[in-house]
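User: quick one - fold this with fe (ii) ion bound?
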Amino acid sequence: MYSIELMVKEHENILKLIEIVKNACCQILDGGEVNTDDFEKMILFARNYADKHHHGKEELILFSKMTEHLGAIAEKLVNFGMLVEHDLGRLHMSELETALNNYKEDPKTIYKLGIIAGATGYANLLTRHIDKENNAVFTYAERNLPSEVLESVDKLVRDFEKEAEEKKVHETYLGILEELSKKYCPSK
Ligand SMILES: [Fe+2]
Ligand SMILES: [Fe+2]
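Assistant: Sure. Structure tokens for the protein plus fe (ii) ion:
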């Protein structure tokens, strides 16, 4: 199915960000400088691509159709599982941002700790979250939603993507990802 395949592909890009984030944290632990510009680019990707673009499609389209058509199990899975985790991801990003701003004003070790904690908290949460979606939530939706609802999901996702294309979302954020990847995951 088009929408699910697209969202699984987007997970691969988010997992690339996670690898970048973890490698950037390891460089700090190994005694390297904190590159605040690069961490700001990671936040930009997490907020605009992983959250607004990817979670946007999940929340506004797929998950909303699941809670509308699949009853209590889907409601629990989405409202008390996936949506809570999306929110927790936003919290980790804002903690990372606060720690970065504090570090820029006053480069103390305690703020380095905040940077590493926010960044790895996000990385670990999203890794588990993506695994659940790929192996349970998406497969459950695809198996149980009526075919006409799946067709409407595809149509809404195509419209969403068209709008994103016009706003150059892919070009902008996948460009940032590529640039960071060359620097932090050079063997890939
Ligand atoms: Fe999600
Ligand atoms: Fe997802």
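One thing worth noting: The two ends are 28 Å apart (CA to CA).
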